[in-house]
Structures are given as structure tokens and as C-alpha cells.
Write a structure and sequence with these properties.
- The complex is a heterodimer.
- By secondary structure, chain A is an alpha+beta fold.
- Chain A has helices at about 1-10, 25-30, 160-165, 205-215, 255-260, 275-280, 300-310, and strands at about 55-60, 70-75, 100-105, 110-115, 125-130, 140.
- Chain A has 7 helices and 6 strands, in the order H-H-E-E-E-E-E-E-H-H-H-H-H.
- Chain A has a 6-stranded antiparallel β-sheet, with no helix packed on it.
- The longest helix of chain A is centred in the middle third of the chain and has 13 residues, at about 205-215.
- Chain B has a 12-stranded antiparallel beta barrel.
- The chains are: A alpha+beta, B mainly beta.
Chain lengths: ~325, ~300
């Protein structure tokens, strides 16, 4: 019955803004980057183990939940270039910048995603590479794959990547002033902050705000860039779960508290909070995030439940 | 009150005797119908990258026939689909695509069985042309949309939705009417001949000749001048599916229940609504659809 209702809602909402419908894969665009991972400049050796010169590993403080997949991330900047950090909430990356993110299941590499800036502005291309069974290289998978390599892991189609990345001016999600506990070396940025930015609040508050920033704010933020053409995963902007370097005084200063508490978060009552309900569930049109996850993030549910329960009723 | 023999037994008996009287040929009418089915499905697919496909949307089928003799008619069926196909991470892409059009010839005859009862048989031969779209290699978006469309029809018309297949589908059946009751039974034997790979990759296991017969039974009762509820059951037997899944199993038997309501709006216009529920099999629990159909004749 619930599924039937969900389907009915999905179909009936067809006439009023179907945010979940994206453009088809732009095959010409993804053809502009190498079709094998070994040609992208990530690794220096044929075994695809040793990083190429100039490739930097990093890890964000708050991670996007990917159904428990192991992840590694790398960045490469063209020699002599710097990240424009004049807007500390939205870094601008030089042309030629490459980001990679590797996903493993049970220690086996399943896919590695490439984000490459081809030209000025928001000229990014995103593409996933599916690892071969011998783990010696990975091949472009512009249309993605379901249950890749016999695991429960789904590889996104390239047209799905902008659904999240397109919600940020910088197009990059996990490499930012908020997300890095140790900031890049001074010679990689135009403006080096004096210190790293700390999320306010108790341990629970920091974990909850960080989770929402990493998993929800790419869509739910009030500074989404204007884009032309068809848009997807572009919700109304009443809610904002992003963390800004200029609003880190107290938890109440954050956009999450200002926009969500009292609407989708009922202080002291997690069971009556729409946010908690959606994060705690999976299924067609009844889950958040709506993309790239089929399993509930148990740790996040515990944190969010505690956070809402401990929140003082208004 | 006159005792009634069970209707089905009568129908079978009538087939075996020659005492029934052929009804005087009435001028047949041209028929035109438009059905729109909507629903959602998660169905097996055929490639290693996509062992399954999930989507929701609409299937439209325009069907028409024209009598050429008192017993014979020629017709055309044009299927099309608008399906939102789920991408691997959960976004959707809309795809509008044609299915395979079907030309058919049908012969039918009706007999008077006395007391207002009639028995009718029909034989039909359908030729489905391989005009359905494939989708670009790798993406196979049209192909995947048609797999959803075929699942929404619970695989009862695979010849209409499998790209790259030229199909011959002989079918035949009988229906027995003893107002207000009507019973029907038929069998369809579609052969799907591979004429192109439909851009499916080498890892998919396509068969040169597919064979997926459908056994149909149903009953309805005209409980009011304006209302005819019905219930039918179809058994789809994927004896040789057009393609096996590279990483998914397509079960041989697929049972389908279809309750429906028909509303005769006038002598020439009927509006119908149905609900298709695959039971068990590969589609059971993962596929639901309903449809509205308007039919007219003149």
C-alpha cells in the first residue's frame, strides 16, 4: 500500500516540477576525457598503486555516506596554479584541476570517479571508471552500472553527478574550508586562512551539522548557482543545511538551525521530525538523501536522533 | 427456477457438438481503441551493467481494425511508451519511444447456443515489425524504457516491446456468453525472431528465436447496464525468452491477475479501467500498473 501511494504521488507530481529527472548523458562531453583511468594521470605505475607526482591525497572531515563503501580521494592542480580562495565558502579551481574519488567494497576497488575542470567557469566534466576484475585498470562507464563487480555498489551515470555537484558554485563538494581539517599549503591557495574553521557546538551538534552539510547541503542550500537548461535535484530553497565560514559562532547561527529547526526538525521530538524520518528510511520517494544510497546510515541515525532529542524545545 | 449448468462445462460441450447454429452473419464494425497504462516496475534486464531496470511511466496503445468480410478483419496496433528510467544512483531520465507496431488478421465466428447463449471463436495472426528504438550503445535508454513498458504489460505482449525482433504471433480462443455471464479462454504463441542485436552488448545472452506463449482465461458479468466487472488470469511462459539476463534470472512462469471494470457509455463507446498484478515470478511484487481504455466502433 505504501509503495502504491508513493507511486501515485510520484506520478501525480509529474505535472508540478519533477526535480528527480535529469538530462540524458552528454556523450560528447564525457568523450573529452580519457576513457581509461590509467590515462587520467592519477597513478604513476602500471599496477595503479603509486600516485603520480603532484597528486595530493585528502580526506574531508564530514563524509558523504556511500552505503559503507571505503573511499580515498585525490587532487591534482596544474603546475603553477592556485585555488582561488577569496570566497572562503566557494573556492574556485583553476582550469585543468582534477579530483578523483575511489570506492572500494571489501577491499576491492569497484570504481574511481574523475572530476576534471576543462575550461573556465563551471566547465566541469564528471565520469566514473569501473575497475576491471584484475584491478589493473578501470574503464569509463558514462552510463554507470548497477551492482558493479557483483557488489551492492551502483556506479552513477555521468548525468547524475551534477545533481549533487551542480548545487555548489565550486562544483567541488568535499574539498573546502569547512571540510578540510588541515588547510592546503599556502602555495596552493590565493588566500590562506589563519586557521582552520571549527564547527560550533557539542560533539553531537558538530557531528549532526557536519553530516547534514556533507549529505544534504549540496541540494538544500540557498546559494545554488543559476544554471541554464534542464535542472535536476534542485529543490525549493526554504531549507539550507550548509555550513558557512561566516556563520560558525554558535549552532544557532548556522543555516540548519535558522531554516530547518521548527520545520523539518521538531526540537526534542525526533519521531515527529520529517528530516529524521527520511534519513532513517530507504525506498522510492521516502528517503533522504535521494541519490546514491540504498542503505540507512546507522551511525548518522544515532547522531541525529540524539541531536534532536537533546535540542531544547522551542 | 431453471437450473443452470456450469458455464464453462457448457462451453466445452458446445465445442464438441454440431447442433449449435451458426448465427446469421452480421455486418462487422470497424473498431478503434486507445489504452493508456501507467505504473511502476523493477524488471530484469539483459546486460552485465544493468541486470535490472527500474522505472515508472505510461504506455499508450492505439489499436484499430477494419472488417473486410463478415468474418475477417485486418488491424494495426501501435504501442508507445513514456517512461522515466532510473539511473544507477537514483536520478531519472525521461524516455519517449515507440514499440513494435503489429499488423494482424483475425477471423471470428459466432454461434447461437440457444436461450440467448452464444459461443464465439477467433483465430488471429499478428506480425510485429522490428521498428522499436534501441537507444545508444551503452546507454540503451530506449531499450530499458521498453523493458519497463513490457513489464507494465506483465510480459503479455513481449513482441510489442522487444527491440530488434520480428515476431509472428498466432493466437486463438473462444468465448461463451450466457448473459449476464461471459467466459473466455485463449492462447497466444508468439515467436520472436532476432533481426538485430538492438545494441545489446555481447555480454547479453540473446536468443535467435524467442518463444513466450500466453494462456489467458477470464470471466465477466454485466451486473448493470453501465457496469461490467471482470477478472482474468494470464500465464506467461518464458519458454525461450528473447534474451536471458547476463546477471539476472528470468523465471519461466509468470502469472498475472487482472481485475477490471468496463463502463458501456453507449452502444458504441466503452470505457474500461484495469489493474495488472503479476503474481510471483520475476515481476511479482515489483510491478504494478493500471490502465484506462476507451474503445469505439462504427
Amino acid at each position: 500500500m505504501a509503495r502504491g501511494i508513493a507511486i501515485a504521488v510520484a506520478l501525480s507530481s509529474a505535472a508540478c516540477g519533477r526535480y528527480w529527472v535529469c538530462d540524458d548523458v552528454d556523450e560528447d562531453r564525457v568523450a573529452r576525457v580519457p576513457q581509461r583511468l590509467s590515462e587520467t594521470g592519477l597513478f604513476a605505475d602500471s599496477a595503479q598503486e603509486i600516485l603520480a607526482p603532484g597528486v595530493l591525497a585528502y580526506a574531508p572531515r564530514f563524509q558523504l555516506w556511500s552505503d559503507g563503501a571505503g573511499k580515498r580521494r585525490w587532487l591534482w592542480l596544474p603546475p603553477g596554479t592556485r585555488i582561488d580562495t577569496s570566497d572562503m565558502d566557494s573556492w574556485a579551481f583553476p582550469e585543468g584541476t582534477k579530483f578523483w574519488k575511489e570506492f572500494t567494497r571489501d577491499g576491492v576497488r569497484v570504481e574511481t570517479r574523475l572530476l576534471e575542470k576543462l575550461g573556465p567557469g563551471d566547465d566541469w566534466v564528471a565520469l566514473a571508471y569501473l575497475w576491471r576484475s584484475d584491478q589493473k585498470d578501470a574503464d569509463a562507464a558514462p552510463f554507470g552500472a548497477i551492482d558493479a563487480a557483483g557488489t551492492p555498489h551502483n556506479v552513477p551515470a555521468s548525468n547524475e553527478c551534477p545533481a549533487c555537484h551542480g548545487g555548489r558554485k565550486s562544483f567541488v563538494l568535499g574539498f573546502s574550508a569547512i571540510q578540510l581539517s588541515s588547510l592546503p599549503a599556502a602555495d596552493l591557495v590565493t588566500t590562506a586562512p589563519a586557521q582552520s574553521f571549527e564547527v560550533p557546538g557539542t560533539e553531537t551538534e558538530r557531528a549532526a551539522l557536519g553530516y547534514l552539510h556533507a549529505n544534504c547541503s549540496q541540494c538544500h542550500n540557498q546559494n545554488r548557482p543559476e544554471r541554464s537548461g534542464a535542472r535536476c535535484f534542485d529543490p525549493k530553497d526554504e531549507l539550507d543545511f550548509s555550513l558557512s565560514v561566516n556563520a560558525l559562532g554558535t549552532p544557532a547561527d548556522t543555516a540548519t538551525y535558522r531554516s530547518a529547526v521548527g520545520s523539518v526538525i521538531e526540537p526534542g521530538r525526533p519521531d515527529e521530525s520529517r528530516l529524521f524520518e527520511l534519513v532513517s528510511d530507504r525506498g522510492f520517494f521516502k528517503q533522504m538523501p535521494p541519490l546514491a544510497t540504498e542503505r540507512v546510515d546507522g551511525d548518522a541515525v544515532i547522531v541525529l536522533e540524539r541531536w534532536i532529542r537533546e535540542m531544547a524545545p522551542r | 427456477m431453471k437450473r443452470r449448468t456450469p458455464e464453462l462445462a457448457v462451453a466445452v460441450a458446445l465445442l464438441s457438438v454440431t447442433a449449435v447454429r451458426e448465427l446469421r452473419a452480421e455486418p462487422q464494425r470497424a473498431n478503434l481503441s486507445l489504452g493508456v497504462r501507467f505504473g511502476a516496475s523493477t524488471a530484469p534486464f539483459y546486460t552485465a551493467a544493468f541486470p535490472s531496470v527500474r522505472g515508472h511511466g505510461f504506455v499508450a496503445v492505439l489499436s484499430g481494425s477494419y472488417p473486410i468480410t463478415a468474418m475477417d478483419e485486418l488491424g494495426l496496433v501501435l504501442p508507445g511508451a513514456l517512461v522515466s528510467v532510473e539511473q544507477p544512483a537514483g536520478a531519472y531520465v525521461d524516455e519517449v519511444t515507440w514499440g513494435n507496431p503489429t499488423l494482424f488478421a483475425m477471423r471470428s465466428q459466432q454461434y447461437d447456443a440457444g436461450n440467448g447463449r452464444t459461443l464465439r471463436w477467433f483465430g488471429r495472426l499478428g506480425l510485429s515489425l522490428p521498428l522499436a528504438e534501441h537507444g545508444a550503445p551503452g546507454a540503451l535508454l530506449a531499450n530499458r524504457a521498453l523493458a519497463v513498458a513490457s513489464a507494465l504489460e506483465a510480459w503479455r505482449d513481449q513482441q510489442s516491446y522487444f527491440p530488434g525482433r520480428l515476431s509472428l504471433a498466432p493466437s486463438g480462443g473462444i468465448d461463451f456468453s450466457s448473459p449476464p455471464w461471459k467466459l473466455e479462454a485463449s492462447i497466444k504463441l508468439p515467436f520472436l525472431f532476432e533481426v538485430s542485436d538492438a545494441n545489446l552488448p555481447e555480454d547479453s545472452d540473446a536468443h535467435a528465436v524467442g518463444f513466450a506463449p500466453v494462456v489467458h482465461t477470464g470471466a465477466n458479468a454485466q451486473v448493470a447496464k453501465w457496469l461490467i466487472p471482470s477478472l482474468s488470469a494470464d500465464l506467461v511462459i518464458n519458454a525461450v525468452p528473447p534474451a536471458d539476463g547476463a546477471r539476472s534470472e528470468i523465471e519461466t512462469a509468470q502469472l498475472v491477475l487482472r481485475p477490471a471494470l468496463s463502463f458501456p457509455l453507449s452502444r458504441v463507446v466503452v470505457l474500461s479501467a484495469d489493474f495488472v498484478a503479476p503474481i510471483a515470478g520475476s515481476l511479482g511484487g515489483s510491478t504494478f500498473s493500471g490502465s484506462m481504455l476507451v474503445a469505439t466502433n462504427w
